[in-house]
Amino acid sequence: MPLALLALAIGAFGIGTTEFVIMGLLPQVADDFGVGIPTAGLLVSGYALGVVIGAPLMTVLGTKVSRKRMLMLLMGLFIAGNLLSALAPTFAVMVVGRVVASLAHGAFFGIGSVVAAELVAPQKKAGAIALMFTGLTVANVVGVPLGTLVGQSAGWRVTFTIVAGLGVVGLAGVAKLVPEMPRPEGVRLRHELAAFKNAQVLLAMAMTVLGFGGVFAAVTYIAPMMTHVAGFADGSVTWLLVLFGLGMVAGNLVGGRFADRALMPMLYVSLGALAVVLALFTVTAHDKIAAAVTITLIGALGFATVPPLQKRVLDQAHGAPTLASAVNIGAFNLGNALSAWLGGMVIAAGHGYTSPNWVGAVLAAAALVLAVVSAALERRDGTPGAAGDATAVPAEQPAPAHH
Questions:
Q1: What is residue 2's three-state secondary structure?
Q2: What is the distance of C-alpha 185 from the center of its chain?
């Protein structure tokens, strides 16, 4: 695999760390600024909404720029946002810093997915996308626990300064290792927008919202669920999240490998199993060992859907996949925000801390139904790759020089 993928993975590691580390540092940030935890929660929801808005906005703004240059500009934005967070004199400035950093998130993964797919042979595209996303998954195993530890001992401002430093390393890596890729001739914004008229692109994005939403319905409330229901100590939540992260790393790599061989079957298996495991979590959450195993499985099955869904969007957005790819990253965050809200509603309605798991199971099952519908429509229309094998190759072929 090309070294350029390492540069993309380093950028992804920094982005993954800044997105999730705030959850472990909310109490410290809230204390420092004299705001309540619900108000401090704006640093999480503000970031997620920034990703949803920033993904299409930054990609559209970058249509006139080469992909390499756009990736470098996005890493610059990421560095600026994290430095602003680290130095923020007031809570409002901290929120602005989080939003600035989030604007880089969706477009970086969206454009990065297209670049990663173009760096390799057609039959290795999903594997290349998965390697870039490894940076995001490893961030949950290494970056987030370490960032939380540093923040709790040396102060949260130090954590955000270090994350900005990671951005500098990512920027240097992109500058040095990612080759210049001329934009495809004749591709304009209207071609990028035309992808959204394709029902298959919209179905893939809906699967992304529902499938990954299923994961976040459960994981958002993992701390109260594990301490109040399973009986874990507060300090155990960190290593439970490490288990979740390890599951994500494994699922992402397996999903990438099998998506290149049999994309739709991979989605059927991962979404179906995810729905079953989330439903079982309502029972296994009452036992410490069973809960730990289930959390790992949720991470693995949830992230096994990411490379196939991202490749599915690239395959279906013929010839102009960049905007659709970025919007699909926004769809993950839309799923996160929606499912966290639904999970909160069922807890507030008095159904207990395990009730979000049922919400997650229903969302994942709905994503599976959409996958079956998508494949049936494809067979009816006689599109190549309907069976889900690796024959569906995007219209944008990699140039030989990029191999």
A1: coil
A2: 30
Which CATH number fits the domain 187-391, given the four candidates 1.20.1250.20, 3.40.50.300, 3.20.20.70, 1.10.1740.10?
1.20.1250.20
Neighbouring C-beta atoms of residue 397, cutoff 10 Å: 11
Q: Which CATH architecture has domain 1-183?
A: Up-down Bundle (1.20)
The pLDDT tens digits of the residues spanning 243-265 come to: 999 999 999 999 988 888 899 99
Residue 288 CA to residue 300 CA, distance in Å, equals 19
Decide whether 1-183 matches 187-391 in CATH topology. Answer: yes
Angle in degrees, 0-180, between the axes of helices 67-87 and 42-61, rounded to the nearest 10 = 150
List helix spans (H) across 236-395: 237-259, 263-284, 288-304, 306-316, 322-346, 355-381
Amino acid identity of residue 90, one-letter, is T
The sign one gets for the Cα dihedral 148, 290, 361, 350 is: negative
CA 263 from centroid of its chain's CA atoms = 19
Query: Which one-letter amino acid corresponds to residue 283?
Result: V
pLDDT by residue (tens digit) across 191-217?
Answer: 788 888 899 999 999 999 999 899 988
